[in-house]
Input
Amino acid sequence: SAKQRERRRTQGSHRRPPVGAAPGTIVFPQGTTRLNVIRYDKEQLFERTGVGIDELPALIVPGQVNWVEVEGLADEAVLRRIAELFKIHPLALADIVNIGQRPKAEAYGEVELVICRQACPRDAHAYDLEQVSLAFTKTAVISFHENERDGYTIVEDAFPASEADALLAELARLERELAIDFASNTFEGQRTKRVYNLLAYGPRFEAIPVHPRVLPVVEGVLDSGCLVSSLSSIAIYPGETAQPIHADDQLLPLAKPHVATVCNSMWALTDFSEENGATRIIPGTHKHDHSPVYGSEHASISAEMRRGSVLVWHGSLWHGGGANRSRGIRVGIAMNYCAGWIRQQENQQLGISLEIARGFSPRLRELVGYGVYRGLIGHIDKHSPIELLGESSEKRVFDF
Output
């Protein structure tokens, strides 16, 4: 119908510097930037997602085809570093980030820049036209995508097998000491065991929230003022059925799509496969204007990954735990974060004793809530709650 056709038509986005701005002025949006690297030759193929900008130079190998995929144009420091590494002209970078350029091919010294448009499905009835820029440099092909498209990434080989074994041993101890039994509801499952509030049960878990390869990804989705929302284990036993598809932020009374409020991760302590219950995800659904109806059926893919890898996803992404049809237990740790301005899922300040919190690293103290978000949110009589741990605070509330 004409109404359906009208709904399908969308205009490409535009983001331009103010009138009168100097040439090369760049307007960086809010959001995230994710880097992926694919490298290959006749003998081998290498692929890594969720690459840190400091890792990037070492992953570019002369003599091989190097492709760097940049998803999202929000991180100014990352994008300027990429321009520096690959000798991308400032005017070319401005055309890449200031979206809404006309399709074109243009040479900037040794770099050839191609700008085009890509149709990206928004839902079953509509699509968006997004700018894609291709920079052909001496050492790599770099594709710049206007938005982070999938809503998730897998940080491969984030921690060694020895750490996975140590965490598994700690969880086995806690399950015995706390007499953890199977859950008994549709969300937590009937053949799944969970241990909550792990930061209260030993220093082995303290390195998880501050992991140097995972936390920067989360900060890119939320910001550096994010908080630990919850830290728990999830052990899916053989015979467990699939968890209903859901979004982790769907209880929040906010119209969608909205600014990111939640960013969660799953640490694979065992291999995650489709057979043993790997998390099922529906890529791109973090952009939908609604959450799934609880219990409804949706086509999904399994986020399969090796033990030692970490799945990170936007809180609006539709997902759910998989069914375990194997003979082994699928064990992961759910490290969940939230924005600094919303309530945490687990009450970290009451659930973790002051004595334990005093032993945390400074960054972990901030993450569990012993800080003030943007100079205001979370204060106690104009003082930072860090003072409850015996630390001094340089700034008081409103001292910007």
